[in-house]
Amino acid sequence: MAVERDQLSSNLSKAKRGYDALYLDITKEVLQNMIADSVKQGNKEEVKQLDRALGLVVLKRELIEK
Predict the structure, then answer these.
(1) Which of 3, 31, 65, 66 is an S-S bond match for 54, by CB 3.0 to 4.6 Å?
(2) Cα separations (Å) of 50 from 9, 17, 19, 27, 29?
(3) When comparing pLDDT for 4 and 29, which is higher?
(4) For residues 8-20, b (16+ Cβ closer than 10 Å) or e, as one string?
(5) C-alpha distances in angstroms, 25 versus 28, 39, 44?
(6) CA-closest candidate to residue 46, choices 57, 55, 37
(7) Angle (nearest 5°) at CA 12 between 9 and 62
(8) Nearest to 51 by CA among 41, 42, 39, 60
(9) Residue 56: pLDDT above 90?
(10) What pLDDT, on the 0 to 100 scale, is given for residue 53?
């Protein structure tokens, strides 16, 4: 029974990391599209803010991979 519980815990942990990674990948794509739209509009301040947010998302995504 303990082995099954440990295995379940391990599987749930892997599933959560997979979900988190997928969520961050989607967020990254959305931010990239928002940056492209802001560049087209010439809104430099918005581009800076979105770029900072994108940097945080990329950093968090890299931490999940480790």
Answers:
(1) 31
(2) 36, 24, 23, 11, 12
(3) 29
(4) eeeeeeeeeeeee
(5) 5, 21, 24
(6) 37
(7) 115
(8) 39
(9) yes
(10) 97
Tokens 């999940």 identify what position?
Answer: 64
pTM of the model: 0.81
More confident residue, 11 or 41: 41
Backbone dihedral angles phi then psi of residue 33, each to the nearest 5 degrees: -65, -40
Detail the DSSP E strand segments found in 1-66: none
57 CB neighbour count, 10 Å cutoff: 20
Q: What mean pLDDT do residues 49-53 have?
A: 98
